[in-house]
């Protein structure tokens, strides 16, 4: 399987997680790409993107907001969106909205295993 590597996942984002290993596995499975360890003052795992200088973000050990609160980052995912939604639930997350269609594409709101809000966008 060829991994889906978007040109731009977001401007830059940081997602606080309580368990780095679990979070890496969750996001890697849902997005179908591998996160890369980064050097820094804390452990970090960078989301994959098409090029090294592409817009992206990372996971870091931190205190997530209460379930369903905090900001929502929309992450690029390959189509079909419904398969990505299945990967969310199969890996311990929750899909919390129906698919929403807008002129630019389709998306759905989800929660990761820590309760962080995120969207999947195609």
Largest sheet: 5 strands, mixed
Approximate strand percentage: 35-45%
Indicate the CATH topology: 2,3-Dihydroxybiphenyl 1,2-Dioxygenase, domain 1
Compute the number of strand runs.
9
Q: CATH superfamily membership, which one? A: 2,3-Dihydroxybiphenyl 1,2-Dioxygenase, domain 1
Number of domains: 1
Averaged pLDDT: 91
Structural shape: globular
Q: pLDDT below 50 for ≥5 consecutive residues: which ranges?
A: none
What share of the residues lie within helices?
A: 10-25%
CATH architecture: Roll
- The helix-and-strand class reads alpha+beta
Q: What is the count of helical runs? A: 2
Whole-number radius of gyration? 13 Å
CATH class: Alpha Beta
- How far from one another are the termini? 18 Å
Order of helices and strands: EHEEEEHEEEE
Organism: Chelativorans salis
Protein name: VOC family protein
InterPro entries: Anthracycline_SecMetBiosynth (IPR052164), Glyas_Bleomycin-R_OHBP_Dase (IPR029068), Glyas_Fos-R_dOase_dom (IPR004360), VOC_core (IPR037523)
Domain VOC: 9-122
Structure commentary:
The chain has 122 residues and is α+β, with helices and mostly antiparallel strands. It has one domain (8-121): 2,3-Dihydroxybiphenyl 1,2-Dioxygenase, domain 1. It is 18% helix and 36% strand. The strands form two sheets. Strands 5, 6, 7, 8 and 9 form a five-stranded mixed sheet that branches. A four-stranded mixed sheet has the order 1-4-3-2, covered by helices on one side. The two termini are 18 Å apart. The mean pLDDT is 91.
């Amino acid at each position: 399987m060829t991994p889906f590597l978007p040109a731009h996942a977001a401007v830059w984002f940081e997602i606080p997680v309580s368990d780095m290993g679990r979070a890496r596995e969750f996001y890697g499975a849902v997005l179908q790409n591998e996160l890369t360890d980064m050097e820094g003052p804390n452990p970090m795992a960078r989301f994959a993107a098409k090029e090294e200088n592409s817009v992206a973000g990372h996971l870091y050990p931190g205190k997530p907001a209460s379930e369903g609160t905090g900001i929502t980052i929309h992450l690029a995912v390959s189509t079909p969106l419904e398969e990505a939604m299945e990967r969310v639930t199969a890996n311990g997350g929750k899909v919390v909205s129906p698919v929403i269609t807008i002129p630019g594409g389709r998306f759905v709101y989800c929660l990761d295993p820590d309760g962080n809000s995120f969207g999947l966008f195609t």
